[in-house]
Automatic annotation (TrEMBL):
Subcellular location: Membrane
UniProt protein name: histidine kinase
Coiled-coil region: 233-271
InterPro entries, per database record: HAMP_dom, HATPase_C_sf, HATPase_dom, His_kinase_dom, HisK_dim/P_dom, HisK_dim/P_sf, PAC, PAS
Residues covered by the HAMP domain: 193-245
Key word Calcium present: no
Major localisation: membrane
Enzyme class: transferase
Catalytic activity, as annotated: ATP + protein L-histidine = ADP + protein N-phospho-L-histidine
Pfam families, A to Z: HAMP, HATPase_c, HisKA, PAS_4
Entry GO terms, CC: membrane
EC number: 2.7.13.3
Amino acid sequence: MGFLQRFSQNSLKFQVTATITGLILFISFGLFFMYVANEFAQLRRSARQEAERLAGIVAQAALPHLVRRDYALLQDLVRGFSKDPAVQSMWVADERGLVLAHSEPDFFGEPLGPVVQGPPFSENRVLIREDLRKNLLHVEFPMVLAGNRWGTVGMEYSTASLQETLGILGGEALLVTGLFVLVGFWLGAVFSKRITAPVSELTRAASALEAGDFNIEVQVEAENEVGVLQHHFARMARALAESQRELQEKNEALNTLNQELAGRVREATAELSRTMEYLSFILKSARDAIITTDRAGSVQTLNRAAEELLDVGREDPRGKPVAELLGKSKEVSEALSQVVDKDQTREIETRIRDRRGEERLLNSTISPLKSDAGDLLGAVVIASDLTEKKHYQEELMRSEKLASVGELAAGVAHEINNIIMVILGFADLLLRQTGPDHPSTQDLKMIEKEAKRGRDIVQRLLRFARPQPLKLAWTDLESILENTVSLLSHQIRKSGIRVEKDYDPRVSAIVCDRGQLEMVFTNIALNAIQVLGDEGILRIKTGAKGADRVEVMISDNGPGIQPEHMGKIFDPFFTTKEPGQGTGLGLSVAYRIVHEHGGIIRVRSRPGQGTDFFIELPVGSEREGAQALPTSGDFGEKR
């Protein structure tokens, strides 16, 4: 419903009538309550005065009997005054508060407390307490003679008659108030008709305007403010009619322009949609992470590659600092500051950890993001994952290093081997020429022992430098591992180590060089045994990696590997053992053998949490070239 229709439901006539009637009603009720309250107050004062007067009469009459201690006359006096209908109870007490006479004889001789609640009387004055709930006045009148208090006259005086009188007064006042209301309603109706007649005319005209009739005629009859309002309303109606005609003409012209504009907007929107869709395809297809930020460095948008690379999960990264996504490094914040403040492009490398806890190396290019007008909006970050590339570079460097060391070792080992053979020959000759009791015998045996150890090292160098061709054959992988444990059984028992084995029944025979793989497993297991003490655990586990590859895990619960040795464990001659206890070639040889089998060897270790070696091998004879992937935080040292 329209505004004017809603207004008609609460007509001005009704409001004027209701206002005048309500005002008279308010005044009438106010006068009614004032009258009743005043009369009630006067009645209460009269009742208090009457109760006090009656108690005084009783006290004056009872005092002589109290002085003579004539309690029988006191009781007759109290019983006589108690016959007054307004007296509910009456009593006389001595100065100690003991009841000497009472309208109810059972209270004779009782303390004052049970009769009237309150403390004992201590002042020579009249006390009157009103109990509105019971319509009673509790009066306590002292009996004083020559300045001494001989006792007290107490009385409960009923004020119920006040309520009856008040009800009569209220009825009379309500009757008068009703007459006032009727008169007020009649006056309101008369005045409202005179006031609202011109307004009703304006209401009728306004309803016609609301319905679209701009030719309405307004009759101006009143000569007061309402008449002025009617005159202005008529002028407004004529102006609205003229404006309506002009507005209709302009609306027709505007509709024509809107149709043309709508066509152009549809074409521009379609072109923009195609462009946005094309850009979206580009961003989704890009392999690099693309992130845009505002001037403060907070993420605004990112493509699918960024979500996958930075592992944002279910939480929306928008609004977060981009430095949190790129490793929380100070370098990211500084680079972003230079891009925004100095309009430069920066390229930085940072490290993050993926959902598996493995470290990833990122190369990020940060460039300014500008509008068509050249205003700086923020920055664009393009991040690439260099982890695999870094691994390949390290693999290439390691292969080149192994090749160089192999060539050097081949030449050096041959020359050293000749020298060692001469030393062994002369040591053997001297031992034959001297008896067991000769002073030099022990020294000669030491020379022979160390020369043989040197010969063994040279032989291992030669095997490393000039690897023998693999003798591939189908071999049971479990039997190779069992033979490895058997070869190391003496060291295992001596060290008090427990071996736990978990062989996957799906893993059986593979194509390999049995002797070479035994060397790999032995070197890795021996390293673990040498760092484990009592209660140490050596775990050997196999498992399938798809349909054409298997994995062997050899792990321990030893001290783990220090972070500073990351990336060096497969380097020749690198060892953390005491001098004379290792050559640093065991894991280098293991790496080369796994590589020749087309496998991958990985190491996972953290200080204090043990070390895990993973050897992944192909089941068949196809070999793709193995990779050793020790990375920071996840790979360990050779022990």
